[in-house]
Design goal:
- The complex is a heterodimer of chains A (about 400) and B (about 750).
- Chain A has 2 helices and 26 strands.
- Chain A is mainly beta and about 400 residues long.
- In chain A, strands 2, 3, 4, 7, 12, 14, 15, 17 and 18 form a 9-stranded mixed sheet that branches.
- Chain B has about 750 residues and is mainly β.
- In chain B, a hairpin with a 5-residue loop joins strand 2 and strand 3.
- The chains are: A mainly beta (about 400), B mainly beta (about 750).
- Chains A and B meet through helix 1, strand 1, strand 2, strand 14 and strand 15 of A and strand 21, strand 26, strand 41, strand 42 and strand 47 of B.
- Strand 1 of chain A pairs antiparallel with strand 48 of chain B, so a sheet runs across the interface.
Chain lengths: ~400, ~750
């Protein structure tokens, strides 16, 4: 294939010319969720080259697009004639508890429509230009879900599930009532863009040391691990209907422009459904590097006494090769989170710490940057904490050899 | 039904091993005449009893039967233009001989080709439309990309469409690429290509004659709807060790051949391997993790009865082995391991039964496998196809006007697909197809009058698993208006139990994924009707004109909505038809030889309620192939091809295929995907044109022969469109043209000792 690419690269001449605008298609994306209080339907149009200003009528969630405004969107539960939500639920409500002002999203009333496993929901979207898009989905259901690792099985959702990524294999399983496929999402705590994978069965096995092939912006030169020790993860187990399964397993070939399995009439996209449970994972690893282990960090930051324990791990596969759980008292109070950073061969390190659970800089308030040189053999070592443009020095100390 | 077929086969086999003998005053002496150089059969050699008027000529396979030879020691003579005349003493009681003749270059024209006698022989004696034979020299001298190539040469014949420069797949008279039966010494080859279709699997140095039938093929052939390509591996030379080789820009080839002791047996082994990976590794710090290699071998033993036993083997592999993720102290490496290839082994026994009949037995195993893996154990996709086949036939004259061939056989297929992840403990796909096809046929070469040749036949097939029984009547006819002009025609019904599971409207695919008929997958059917004429101008020039009409039923095209958990929903059925006219003007020998091939064609397909032209629906196709003396003492090959536009499905926009996060109940990302028009193949690419020129010099070196060559592909640097890529996320939207091969000069050298 490389040779084919080489031949193609040396033999093909690329010539670009402008062409006529394409034909607009109404694109509808909606995933019905019995486990969340409010549903939504995203209505947009396909790209035709008509305008490069995709946000001229508002931005579409999940990336730029061309939203369709003033559409009439209804969903009916065809399996429940007595649905207290009504025979036709109009998606014209305001989003509850959200400041999202994205365009082209149509919200249901809270708690509507009624969704029970096996119910068939029917979607109808009518756009201002008269286009009508319809579709239907059968609501999936599960009677339970579990996580298993290291001989421990736990029903989810439940307490934080711990496993050792160096020796354990994580098994996620659902007990389905109705449905078709399993989607698994793994993201660092609070990460808005998790890695995800789907399988055509009701369970999945994830070796603890599996490389992260499931990340959307995959980088061939730097393939991270899916699980790093010293990190909390949000682990979502979703059981989907057939439409959603078709939506994620198919795509249009760049050669033919065909291949996507479209289950909508009059438009393109998905009207699917799923049920999902999210559980936190606490991933640990073997302590096999001299620098790894537990440290105590204490001192004063901006007049506030801090005292935390840092369960530190190093690893070679990720750009962020330093992680660790941090628990104790920090600047804003109790802390139970993790840090990520880099450490070099001389044990000089830089790391960042957030007070709130998670490690997503985009959504966090104050970031604490920690810098210093670990002393794995014992003794105290200074750590500089940069916080709100000021530098503070606290002390670190190895707790275990 | 199967019992009856087995019984029929048993009868044929029994007949085949019975030989007749008897004390007579005169006898029939049969045998074969082969070339010393490479054991290829010599056709049209005059065989005579010294001092007697009786003279017979050898047929296409070099065989002859000389009647009325006295039962005493006698001399038999052999003569033909292009070979040294020779004679052989035949002892009393001896009734079969094998004669090897040397070439006689001083008697030959400066440039010759061996296909003319074969074609003329066929014209005179056989009712068979739509047949072209080419030989090794034609293939070798046809200009091409980097290396001469059997299938690239076939693509230049009438009725044959190649979608682009990057695939050796071809379309015969409106059929899809999976409708071509491609055989190596009688054993089907599943996917005869390397490097994503850029090269075929056949090493031209090891090839003897190639016979290509584009329609109306006789009852002995089954299993495909549109064409038969019979590639014969030549026998090794019978005298002395022979070594040939070639070094091109992409690969090195070596062929070794010779006699096996004093047994009369010969051997031929040829191997080829690309070496770019080695060169890159030796000269740079980079790695090129791809290569392909193949090898073919044949051992042939002529039998004193005039028959022969031969064993042919082939093995080929494309390999991509790349350490995708390097090892670290925390993680094992992850290798991308991809390999695919064919392998086959075929046994062929020819046995003369008595004075008139000939028994043939073929047995073979042919495999193709594909393995794609992220190792160890992350993801593994595999496909393996295997064919076990055996068939036998008996050809015998019946009365003065019939030569009847009866035969039968069995083909047992097994195609398996597996897509799994050991690491994820998940199996995404597991499917198997195991059609077994029993067949029996009868084919009659009938000469009712001196001016009329008829070839009626019927083929019966039973497809196990599909519970499908078919009867395929076939007939070929030839009416001689003059000694050099004949009207020709044929009609027949054809069935195909194998399908390639792919989107046939995509211009490029690495290889075919085969599935077989079963309780839900249908057997495809095609009816052929062919009519035309063949005219010879002297002994070297022929004009063939044929019109045809074909129907297609139960073709399949891949259904992207295929649910891996369900077997039988992988495809949608397609029907269609094709008609057109093929013209071939060919000069076989002389200072200027080659052909002009023109095709006019219409093809259509019906999928659901939509009728559309298939991707290979080219209205006019012209190929001119000339081989002649060139400058500086070279042999020059010129090929000019022109084809009117091929259809494609235009793109009408793009959409953002979004990624949904269940945890956040929101979209997080998207992939932009192009959207095709619902009207399949409703637009057309520009016309195609390509001029290739090659020069080949022959010089002596150390007692051997050295042949350096230059090839110039697409001399006019015409920008033939391979495909279009569109961008609809900008204003104005744009279309980018990806072209086919531009002007490329290549060179290489062949040697022979």
């Amino acid at each position: 294939l490389l040779l084919v690419t080489a031949v193609a690269a040396t033999s093909c001449e690329l010539e670009e010319i402008p062409v006529d605008e394409g034909d607009p298609i109404t694109v509808v994306n909606a995933v019905m969720r019995p486990d969340v209080e409010q549903q939504w339907v995203l209505v947009e149009t396909s790209l035709t080259g008509a305008s490069e200003d995709f946000n001229e009528t508002g931005s579409v969630p999940g990336g730029v697009g061309r939203p369709v405004l003033d559409a009439f969107v209804t969903v009916a539960n065809a399996s429940f004639p007595g649905d207290p939500c009504g025979a036709q639920v109009a998606f014209d409500a305001e989003p509850v508890g959200s400041e999202d002002e994205t365009a082209g999203v149509y919200w249901s009333p809270v708690g509507c429509p009624t969704m029970r496993p096996g119910d068939t929901l029917e979607l109808r979207v009518e756009t201002p230009d008269g286009t009508v898009v319809t579709g239907s989905t059968e609501i999936p259901g599960i009677s339970g879900a579990t996580l298993t690792a290291g001989g421990v099985e736990q029903a989810i959702p439940g307490q934080i599930f711990a496993f050792n990524r160096d020796v354990d294999t994580l098994v996620a399983e659902v007990d389905p009532i109705r449905g078709r496929a399993l989607q698994i999402e793994v993201g660092e705590r609070g990460n808005a863009r998790p890695s995800w994978v789907f399988v055509d069965s009701s369970s999945i096995t994830l070796p603890g040391d599996i490389p992260n092939f499931f990340i959307s912006d995959f980088d061939f030169d730097d393939v991270p691990d899916l699980f790093l020790p010293g990190v909390y993860y949000d682990f979502t187990t979703a059981w989907t209907d057939r439409n959603y399964f078709d939506f994620v397993r198919s795509m249009n070939s760049p050669l033919s422009g065909r291949g996507f399995i479209n289950n909508l009439e009059g438009g393109l996209g998905v009207f699917g459904s799923m049920v999902a449970v999210t559980n936190e994972l606490r991933v640990v690893g073997n302590v096999d590097d001299p620098a790894e282990g537990r440290y105590q960090l204490s001192g004063v930051i901006d007049g506030v006494a801090v005292d935390i324990t840092w369960e530190l791990y190093t690893h070679a596969t990720n750009f962020a090769n330093l992680t660790g759980f941090v628990t104790g008292t920090w600047y804003f109070g109790d802390l139970d989170n993790y840090v990520t950073g880099r450490v070099d061969e001389t044990n000089r390190f830089d790391a960042r710490l957030f007070q709130e659970p998670g490690n997503d800089q985009d959504t966090r308030d104050p970031t604490f940057f920690l810098s210093g040189q670990l002393s794995p053999s014992g003794g105290t070592f200074p750590i500089t904490v940069f916080f709100r443009s000021e530098a503070y020095t606290i002390q670190g100390r190895r707790l275990t050899p | 039904m199967r019992v009856a077929l087995v019984a029929a086969l048993s009868v044929i086999l029994t007949i085949g091993i019975v030989t007749r003998s008897g004390a007579q005053q005169v006898r029939m002496v049969g045998g074969r005449v082969l070339a010393v150089a490479d054991s290829t059969p010599l056709a049209r050699v005059a065989v005579a009893l010294a001092g007697a008027p009786t003279l017979v000529r050898t047929d296409d396979s070099g065989r002859f039967r000389l009647p009325d030879v006295p039962n005493v020691t006698a001399w038999v003579t052999f003569r033909r233009i292009g070979v040294r005349p020779d004679s052989l003493q035949v002892s009393p009681a001896q009734d079969s001989i094998v004669m090897y003749l040397r070439s006689a270059p001083f008697e030959m024209a400066p440039i010759t080709a061996t296909a003319a006698p074969v074609a003329r022989e066929r014209f005179q004696n056989v009712a068979q439309t739509s047949t072209v034979t080419i030989d090794r020299e034609i293939i070798r001298n046809a200009p091409g990309f980097i290396e001469s190539d059997v299938i690239r040469t076939i693509q230049l014949l009438p009725g044959t469409i190649a979608l682009n420069d990057y695939t050796v797949g071809y379309h015969a008279r409106g059929g899809e690429a999976d409708q071509n039966l491609i055989q190596l010494d009688g054993v089907p080859v599943f996917n005869p290509s390397h490097l994503g279709g850029l090269f075929s699997t056949f090493d031209d140095a090891a090839v003897g004659n190639v016979t290509y039938l584009t329609g109306g093929f006789p009852a002995a052939y089954g299993g495909r709807l549109s064409s038969v390509l019979d590639v014969g591996v030549r026998n090794g030379r019978s005298e002395g060790l022979g070594v040939q080789g070639q070094i091109s820009l992409i690969s090195s080839k070596l062929l070794v051949e010779g006699p096996l002791g004093g047994t009369g047996a010969t051997y031929l082994f040829a191997g080829r391997r690309t070496y770019a990976d080695k060169v890159v590794g030796a000269l740079t710090d980079e790695t090129l993790p791809y290569y392909f290699a193949d090898g073919v071998g044949k051992v042939a033993l002529p039998l004193s009865s005039g028959g022969a036993i031969s064993l042919t083997g082939y093995w080929g592999r494309d390999v991509l082995d790349w350490e995708w993720i390097e090892a670290t102290e925390d993680r094992d490496p992850v290798d991308l391991e991809v390999n695919w290839g064919n392998a086959l082994l075929g046994l062929h026994v020819e046995h003369l039964v008595g004075e008139e009949a000939q028994f043939n037995f073929h047995a073979g195993v042919s495999t193709f496998s594909t393995n794609i893996g992220l190792e160890p154990g992350l993801v593994r996709v595999s496909n393996d196809a295997r064919l076990l086949s055996a068939r036998a036939s008996l050809t015998t004259p019946v009365g003065a006007h019939h030569e009847v061939q009866v035969g039968g056989g069995v083909e047992s297929y097994r195609m398996r697909y597996d897509f799994s992840s050991e690491a994820l403990d998940s199996r995404f796909l597991s499917a198997a197809y195991q059609p077994r096809i029993w067949s029996a046929f009868i084919d009659d070469q009938w000469i009712p009058t001196g001016r009329l040749l008829l070839r009626p036949g019927i083929r019966m097939e039973l497809v196990e698993g599909a519970d499908f029984v078919s009867f395929s009547p076939r007939i070929n006819a030839k009416v001689f208006l003059t000694e050099d002009l004949a009207l020709t025609g044929s009609a027949g019904r054809y069935y195909q139990a194998l399908h390639s599971l792919r989107d046939h409207n995509v211009p490029w695919s690495v290889f075919d994924f085969w599935i077989g008929a079963d309780s839900v997958t249908p057997v495809a059917r095609s009816d052929h009707l062919v009519g035309g004429f063949e005219k010879w101008f002297g002994g070297n020039v022929t004009l063939t004109v044929e019109g045809y009409h074909k129907t297609f039923d139960n073709l399949i095209t891949f259904d992207p909505a295929d649910d891996f958990a369900v077997q039988g929903d992988e495809y949608r059925t397609v029907s269609g038809n094709a008609w057109g006219v093929d013209v071939l003007l060919r000069q076989y020998a002389g200072g200027l030889r080659g052909w002009i091939a023109y095709s006019y064609a219409h093809a259509s397909r019906i999928l659901g309620d939509q009728e559309f032209p298939p991707a290979h629906d080219r209205r006019h196709n012209l190929n001119i192939v000339i081989q002649t003396n060139g400058p500086l003492g070279s042999e020059m090959g010129v090929r000019w091809g022109y084809g009117t536009p091929l259809p494609y499905t235009p793109f009408t926009g793009a959409w953002r295929h979004r990624e949904y996060s269940a945890g956040g109940h929101r979209f997080t990302d998207f992939n932009e995907e192009i959207v095709a028009s619902p009207d399949l193949n409703s637009a057309r690419f520009p016309a195609y044109g390509r001029l290739d020129v090659s020069f080949r010099w022959t010089t002596g070196l150390w007692g051997g022969t050295l042949r350096p060559y230059l090839q110039f592909v697409n001399v006019l640097n015409r920008r033939n469109v391979f495909l279009y890529a569109f961008e609809f996320d900008q204003t104005p939207p744009t279309r980018t043209t990806v072209t086919q091969l531009p002007f490329i000069p290549t060179f290489g050298v062949e040697f022979e000792f």
